[in-house]
Amino acid sequence: MVLNIRERIRLHSSSISYRMKNGDSHDIFGSDFKSLNELPIQKIGATMQDFSDYYQLTQRESEILMLIVVYGFANREIAERCVISEKTVKNHLANIMNKIGIKSMRKLIPLLFSHVLYSHEKTKS
């Protein structure tokens, strides 16, 4: 089953939890956070899909980009969430930056925000 960007964002947002050393899992955020978090996720899903299509990102690259931009996850957190190694996360990030034509993660976020603003202005007109 292939999930689109919106479904992947929703999947990740609904499963944010904290795993204790003893293996117990505790929900970090209550239902208030989850319902509050739904609105930006719905709004950013289409834009992330458009951004991914424009730069020809794979689904995994899009998922990793979303985890960084929407949730601010570090490489280790992304690796745990996606069940891949941290080295694989770094490889995906390198591929993303090569496809976009940037050399720094610091430039990635403003580029994505510019894309979001452009998309928003385009839909307003």
Question: How would you characterize the overall build of this protein?
Answer:
The chain has 125 residues and is mostly helical. Helices cover 70% and strands 5% of the residues. The protein has six helices and two strands. A two-stranded antiparallel sheet has the order 1-2. Helix 1 runs antiparallel to helix 2 and helix 4 crosses helix 5.
Topology:
Blueprint: H1 5-14, E1 17-19, E2 25-27, H2 31-54, H3 59-69, H4 75-82, H5 86-100, H6 105-124
Antiparallel strand pairs: 1-2
Helix percentage: over 70%
What order do the strands of the largest sheet run in, or round the barrel if closed?
A: 1-2
Structural class: mainly alpha
Q: How does the overall form come out from the CA principal axes? A: globular
Order of helical and strand elements = HEEHHHHH
Q: Helical region count? A: 6
Number of strands: 2
**What low-confidence regions span 5 or more consecutive residues with pLDDT below 50?**
16-22, 24-29
- Indicate the mean pLDDT: 76
Strand content: under 5%
How far apart are the first and last residues' alpha carbons, in Å?
36 Å
Name its key features.
125 residues, mainly alpha, two-stranded antiparallel ribbon
Brief account:
It is built from six helices and two strands; from the N terminus they run H-E-E-H-H-H-H-H. With about 120 residues, it is mainly alpha-helical. A two-stranded antiparallel ribbon has the order 1-2.
